[in-house]
Design a protein that fits this description.
Elements: H1 4-13, H2 21-40, H3 42-58, H4 70-82, H5 86-102, H6 113-131, H7 135-145, H8 151-158, H9 162-176, H10 186-199
Helix pairs in contact: 2-3, 2-4, 3-4, 4-8, 5-6, 6-10, 7-9, 8-9, 9-10
């Protein structure tokens, strides 16, 4: 995670030396590209990374280190850009679900074999369910499950209270519940499948 003070100092120094913004790009571009590629596909992601850092440079004065590090701030800009590509994201999620139905994700040794089997079995249905989530719930879920952001970081990224993050994640988990069948903890298995898919894309 970024250290807010260091990040703020770096962004402030850009006023005197704009080339220093390249350090922000170098540190965060790969992670932001991965996030965009998962949501929109590599071609759109490649195009949007440049746009994102152009916006970040122009809006650097809006960065508030009290709300978190630079990365959540960049995730927030990225998520707003994704809003213009909602249809592409839904298509990608469904296509990924169809692909993993025939080529299940590799097992994550930290999850255990049973969890991996469950995840690969239900992933196509999870992908469909996630594609159909309301946009705001999907944003919070992807930042939590795929990007590993904490509640505070998601709140900073989306510029919403932490309580709103909790409620959106709760609603998203409830919508995913039931996908694994009655013999499992359904929402936990569904969320595990979604997390696992993020490791394999």
């Amino acid at each position: 995670m970024d250290v807010g003070g260091d990040a703020a100092a770096l962004l402030a120094s850009v006023e005197d030396d704009p080339t220093r913004f390249g350090e922000v790009f170098d540190e965060h571009a790969a992670v932001i590209y991965r996030y965009l590629a998962r949501r929109l596909g590599p071609e759109d992601a490649e195009e949007l990374v440049g746009e994102l850092f152009r916006i970040a440079f122009e809006r650097r004065a809006t960065f508030d280190p009290r709300l978190g590090g630079v990365r959540p701030w960049l995730y927030g800009i990225a998520t707003r850009l994704v809003a213009n590509f909602r249809r592409s994201e839904a298509r990608r999620l469904r296509a990924t679900g169809r692909l993993l139905e025939t080529e299940p994700p590799l097992a994550d040794p930290t999850e255990g074999l049973v969890g991996a089997v469950d995840a690969s079995r239900i992933w196509p249905r999870v992908a469909q369910a996630v594609a159909e989530l309301p946009d705001l719930e999907r944003d919070a879920l992807i930042l939590f499950a795929w990007e590993g952001l904490g509640y505070d970081e998601i709140a900073a990224s989306l510029e919403i209270p932490v309580g709103t993050v909790r409620s959106r994640l709760h609603r998203a988990r409830r919508r995913l519940a039931g996908l694994a069948g009655p013999s499992h903890q359904e929402d936990d298995v569904s969320l595990s499948a979604y997390r696992q898919s993020g490791r394999c894309t």
